[in-house]
Design a protein that fits this description.
Blueprint: E1 3-14, E2 19-26, E3 31-36, E4 43-44, E5 54-61, E6 72-81, H1 84-90, H2 94-102, E7 118-120, E8 123-127, E9 136-139, E10 145-148, E11 151-154, E12 161-164, E13 176-177, E14 183-187, E15 200-208
Parallel strand pairs: 3-6, 12-15
Antiparallel strand pairs: 1-2, 1-5, 2-3, 2-4, 5-6, 7-8, 8-15, 9-14, 10-11, 10-13, 11-12, 14-15
Length: 210
């Protein structure tokens, strides 16, 4: 069964090759979604979506969903639109107003992703056999994030790090993401990084709304 809805593009992240991952928010149904093509395949660089754009789409949930990636949807039709109603009500900052409405403020590393994050070498992950019920969230931390190579370090004394995977090049990102800034975190697809038979979904930083 297909759904017609207005959406706003929240994130665009790099994957292997020329593949990309596009995250969105279904405004009409109040849910996070991840956009795939009409055959539920990963998007590539030719996909039109950019962060902050407003679309009307027709989509259906992916036939086979594997937690925590329950947001996957196949998009059959899409049309870029001007969100005139939001502009009239909220002004030109309508996108950031939506972001702040979605943001869970003062989050902690122990509470995000249903409290199921595990850590190794200061990198966070969840296990494929014990997934949370979602793979994306918009949150803000009560501490700064400091750029360190391709990672951002949590400046709360823990030393924990989050890999940045956004479409914007890391060199264009700020050296400090200030505390209380809304950020989008996501869980990567499961993979057996250590070759021990345990597939993990690593936490990554897919965007910051500065």
């Amino acid at each position: 069964m297909s759904i017609s809805a207005n959406i706003v593009i929240l994130s665009k992240t790099k994957m292997s090759g020329d593949n990309i991952c596009v995250g969105a928010y279904d405004i009409d149904n109040d849910i996070m979604i991840r956009l795939l093509d009409s055959k539920a395949r990963t998007l590539d660089e030719t996909a039109p979506y950019e962060i902050g754009e407003f679309y009307h789409i027709k989509y259906a949930q992916r036939y086979q969903l594997t937690p925590p990636h329950v947001e996957d949807v196949a998009v059959y039709e899409y049309e870029k639109r001007i969100p005139q109603g939001y502009i009239d009500n909220c002004g030109e900052n309508w996108f950031y107003i939506i972001i702040h409405e979605l943001c869970e403020i003062d989050s902690s590393l122990s509470s995000i992703f249903s409290g199921k994050l595990l850590w190794e070498n200061n990198k966070g992950y969840t296990l494929e056999n014990d997934p949370p019920d979602h793979s994306v969230c918009i949150i803000s931390f009560p501490f700064n994030l400091e750029k360190n190579g391709e990672y951002y370090t949590c400046m709360n004394g823990s030393g924990k790090m989050i890999k940045y995977v956004g479409k914007k090049e890391i060199g264009e990102m700020p050296s400090i993401i200030p505390r209380n800034t809304p950020i989008r975190l996501s869980l990567a697809r499961p993979w057996d990084k250590n070759g021990d038979g345990n597939k993990r979904c690593y936490m990554q930083l897919s965007g910051a709304y500065l």
